[in-house]
Design brief:
Layout lengths: L40 H9 E2 L4 E2 L2 H18 L3 E3 L5 E3 L8 H9 L5 H6 L2 H14 L3 E5 L7 E5 L2 H16 L9 H12 L8 H6 L1 H9 L6 H8 L1 H9 L6
Antiparallel strand pairs: 1-2, 3-4, 5-6
Helix pairs in contact: 1-2, 1-7, 2-3, 2-5, 2-7, 2-11, 6-7, 7-9
């Protein structure tokens, strides 16, 4: 396919690229990134959902919800969001997170439940994540020639996509007990499965790895029971959203 003028070819290098994600799973995943990749879950979720042929997410509606869910997990992991006794979400600490997407979600959080927060403004959050990744130099964003107002997105370095997919694949197919895997990595695998992201979770994987996927999803309950429940209900949330009931 033709490249947009804004898109730049990937730089070649003779230096071997390290895995962008530093936290190991039983030592299987090496290295710091030579391209300064972020560890933020919502950024990794976006890259996981990226489709090279489509020049953007495999499904924008689904990806918006997945990115929102990943950002909520990120905020819970940082101790910025907690679950109250009634199942609502409360902000545990004020002040900037250093990420405008997370800061906006903190402002929206009080008085809502996890499921509401997954669905709330998901389309706007998806666009904001793309803009943030573009500002970090990880994406190039241009206008789509096929859809008015649409976007055409190019990942600056294909090695980044390979790394994020390989990391999730290591969670799903590896031998490490799920309880020993970092919650962030287990969450990403659970979200990919819930979103039917076939770049890493094939239909066969979904059947054969059902117990491991379920165990990964259960890890979210250590952060907040309602968050785990929201992720388990993502498939229905996505159906509702695509039917016009999910909001944006």
């Amino acid at each position: 396919p033709l490249l947009l003028e804004e898109e730049k070819p990937c730089r070649s290098s003779s230096v071997p690229r390290a895995d962008p994600f530093a936290r190991p799973i039983n030592g299987a995943l090496p290295g710091r990134s030579v391209i300064g990749m972020t560890e933020s879950l919502h950024h990794r979720m976006y890259l996981l959902a990226y489709d090279e042929e489509a020049r953007g997410p495999y499904d924008r509606s689904r990806t918006g919800l997945l990115v929102r869910a990943a950002a909520l997990v990120e905020l819970a992991l940082r101790g910025r969001l907690v679950e109250t006794g009634g199942g609502s979400v409360a902000v545990a600490a004020t002040g900037s997170t250093g990420d405008p997407v997370l800061d906006e979600m903190l402002r929206e959080a009080p008085g809502h439940g996890w499921k509401q927060l997954v669905r709330r403004h998901s389309g706007g959050t998806l666009t904001a994540v793309e803009d943030r990744l573009a500002a970090l130099g990880l994406l190039t964003v241009g206008s789509s020639r096929l859809r008015l107002g649409g976007r055409r997105v190019t990942v600056s370095d294909p090695a980044t996509l390979r790394a994020v997919r390989e990391r999730v694949s290591a969670v799903l197919h590896g031998d490490a007990p799920v309880h020993e895997i970092p919650v962030a990595d287990a969450a990403l695998a659970a979200l990919a499965a819930a979103g039917k992201d076939r770049s890493v979770v094939s239909r066969q994987d979904a059947r054969e790895l059902r117990d491991r996927i379920n165990a990964c999803t259960s890890r979210l309950g250590t952060l907040a029971p309602g968050l785990e429940k929201a992720v388990r209900g993502l498939s229905m949330t996505m159906i509702a959203a695509q039917g016009g009931m999910g909001g944006s």
